[in-house]
Design a protein that fits this description.
It contains 13 helices and ten strands. By secondary structure, the protein is α/β, with parallel strands linked by helices. GO terms for molecular function: glycosyltransferase activity. Keywords: Glycosyltransferase, Membrane, Transferase, Transmembrane, Transmembrane helix.
Length: 367
């Protein structure tokens, strides 16, 4: 029996190594400066009860070193004074445009409906999306994201990280999960199979949106305005990855485990609607890591060929560490790397809990 478990342990180790060797596609990719870009851009921000965040994070968008852009702010039936904050910014800057969404019985609490109205309001053909609690990390954010369109691409995938709190272990877990997700979607896109993007930092053309019939194929789902759209529309010819440090955004992370768990449940609830090949790859990636750690623990407890087991585990962890270190350096998340074995184990079993919870019931609202 122990010999069979050892065989499966080696199998899952090989699968993990195959994935992380593929992830070198992103780890070794080099960032490029955008050069001169002046394409007409509409930045679109969907806000639901985000008055304070808009006060803090809208100014860095308006302060972008880019001459040809407007900012569409969508007030998605907010209950706080989000509308008044947007109207105030309108009086200060003519580039701010308002879309005021009232609750609609057919599309109640549906972010995709609100975003569609915002896209229809946009006057420019190049659209960059971010969230109300996101801040660009440089005045060249728009320039870098818009540069992807110069490559004759219609979809640009950016990095949306989270603000750092050096005293919080949960903060490191959130940023590690975000780093791992970015490694995956950047690597897959680099290898010719883009499968998702994040709405905190995503761009596509209005032409691509309308050719795809917007969110029509998944409008009934509360989430997925970003990853399901990319999964449906992106391919190796039309997608550009933008991971330059000046092209990133950072968001306000959750500060308690319960809120973050609920957020991840909402994000994970749409993964079942990905293309079959993407579901298979993502499922295999998760399952191999899950069983790797389970079998590692069992084999060490029974002390069966423990030297061989530890040697194999050491090779896997070293390859993972190299990929994480190189990728984290690109995305400025280096402080989470040294904790990666602990964070990975915690994340794997948290994801298992999310899978169980979503099997029982689905999250109902985007906010």
């Amino acid at each position: 029996m122990a010999a069979i478990l050892l065989g499966f342990f080696f199998l899952f180790s090989i699968i993990i190594l195959a994935f992380y060797l593929a992830f070198f596609a992103f780890a070794r990719d080099k960032s490029k400066n955008p050069g001169e870009v002046n394409l007409p851009v509409s930045v679109i921000v969907c806000a639901k009860n985000e008055a304070e965040n808009l006060k803090n994070f809208l100014p860095p968008i308006l302060d972008q070193d880019y001459s040809n852009f407007e900012v569409i702010i969508i007030n998605d039936a907010s209950l706080d004074n989000t509308l008044q904050v947007i109207e105030h910014f309108q009086t200060l800057d003519g580039r701010v445009k308002l879309v005021n969404v009232q609750n609609n019985e057919a599309f109640w609490a549906n972010k995709k409906y609100a975003l569609t109205l915002g896209i229809k309001k946009a006057q420019n053909p190049y659209l960059i999306f971010t969230d109300a609690d996101c801040a660009p990390q440089s005045p060249n954010w728009i320039k870098h994201m818009a540069s992807g369109f110069k490559q004759e691409k219609s979809i640009v995938l950016g990095y949306g990280g989270y603000f750092k709190d050096s005293k919080s272990l949960l903060n490191k877990l959130i940023r590690f999960e975000t780093l791992l997700t970015a490694i995956q979607y950047f690597s897959y896109a680099k290898l010719g199979n883009p499968y998702m993007g994040v709405g905190r930092n995503l761009a596509y053309t209005s032409k691509q949106f309308y050719e795809q019939k917007g969110f029509a194929n998944h409008l009934h789902l509360r989430s997925g305005d970003d990853d399901l759209f990319v999964n449906e529309a992106a391919n190796f010819k039309n997608t550009f990855i933008c991971h330059h440090p000046e092209a990133s955004t950072r968001s306000v992370p959750k500060t308690d485990l319960k809120s973050w768990f609920h957020q991840k449940r909402r994000h994970a609830s749409v993964a079942g609607f990905y293309k079959t090949k993407d579901k298979v790859l993502l499922g295999l990636f998760y399952a191999s890591r899950f069983f790797f750690w389970i079998l590692l623990a069992v084999l060490l407890i029974v002390q069966f060929q423990w030297q061989l087991v530890l040697g194999c585990a050491g090779v896997v962890l070293i390859v993972q560490a190299i990929v994480y270190a190189k990728s984290a350096q690109k995305l400025q998340e280096t402080d989470v790397v040294w904790l990666f074995p602990f964070l990975e184990v915690f994340l794997i079993f948290t994801q298992f809990g999310i899978f169980i919870a979503n099997s029982i019931s689905k999250p109902r609202h985007w906010k």
